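Entry 12.
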Amino acid sequence: MVEFAFIAPMLAGIVAFFLPSTAGRPLLVFTGAAHLALAIMLWVLRPEALFPAYFAVTPEGLLSLLVISLLFFLIAIYTTAYLKAAEIRSEHIFTGSMLLFLSTMTMVTLSDHIMVMWIAIEATTLASAPLIYTHRSAASLEATWKYVLICSVGIALALLGSVFITLSMDVGGVDVPVAFSSLTDVAKQLDPLWLKTGFVFILVGYGTKMGLAPMHTWLPDAHSEAPSPASALLSGVLLNCAYLGIFKTNKIMHAAGLGDFSGTILMTFGLVSILAAATFILKQTEYKRLLAYSSIENMGIIAFGTGIGGIGAYGAVLCLIHHSLIKSSLFLCSGNILLGYGNRLIAATGQMARRMPKTFVAFFSGFAGISGFPPFGIFIGEFFIIMAAFQTGHYISVGLFILSLCVIFAGFARHVMKISFDDVDTTIRIEEKSIMVWPQYALLTTSLVLCFWIPETLYQTIVQALTTMGGGF
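Predicted 3D structure (tokens):
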């Protein structure tokens, strides 16, 4: 059952390539619904994998899998209406690539072997590249090549880091499977020098895919050129998959007593990412690139919180979950805006509150949520991260953290106000359909519900994932 979770969408994706263009739309929704049901079954049953040396149902993997599955299902529903309204050539390639993308991301969440994780993360690059090139323009071609080349270089560094971790086993005289769970159990016996070296390479490698600065340069182009459903998956889900590789390696570092070393590096990359996002958000001219830089900011927040550890790591996981829900909603809204106004420039959009009221409610609510307004979950996560930073004496770092968040909010708010209320002489090209709005409302509602009520099974799963790093209460 475990392996079937990624084999099923892989087979569906292969079939979609040979179907008539429009036939892929119901297949997307059907596969998304079946995948969500499978993810819930895995959550409840926690079965053993058919190949336990390579795959396992872990707490952190389950969290990511459930988020991926829920998001893909809602995005698939939106995509059926989006494809009717948008002019997309070779629709069967788009739907097939979406399903293969789902398969590879699922494989990442279920991978326990360090090299299988690397293969799965590399496979997400190959599966998602055609999505970025969907419109086949010069800009989308450039964005695709930049995405493939930069992420492949990063993945190569992550491969080298994985090799260094296996060397830490050999030097330490450890004979266990090269799996994250096994390595965490025997972490104190691993050679610390090779372990530190391996962590640095893995952080830089997977951090490239995660969108951490200064390795983030592919992300704004890829997110802005891809169709909005693909952008929602790239930002809401793909970045989480790369983070999962860093997270699991960081657990090994903590178990080996090297948490201070890995935490300091994570906090540094996190702060650099937040500062980079603050710099670029202020001068953005396109709303999809604006959302992309917001993703870089949030990945920085997550890295910063993970680096602090303890309650900060708990806050980071909360930010991870809520960022996925809210940012996916925002990118789906950006699809409506692009279809409505026919332009990606912020200056060419305006009066959305009057002209596209349903999209405006979702977009403005998403802005409030992603900016850390209460009662949205990102506010709670950031509060825990700030509290943990003060408790551990990182006063200068948390000061820069808070200042950067204020700058980002000011820049983001200025752009959102222009889009929502500025007077622009333009005609809306499409009629707002409920099916292109309610998935965003469903995502935002899920985020709100999780702010006030976290099911006990969800909380315990988060705590289990963070036990090594002292997360939770």
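Annotation: Residues 258-473 form one domain. The mean pLDDT is 91.
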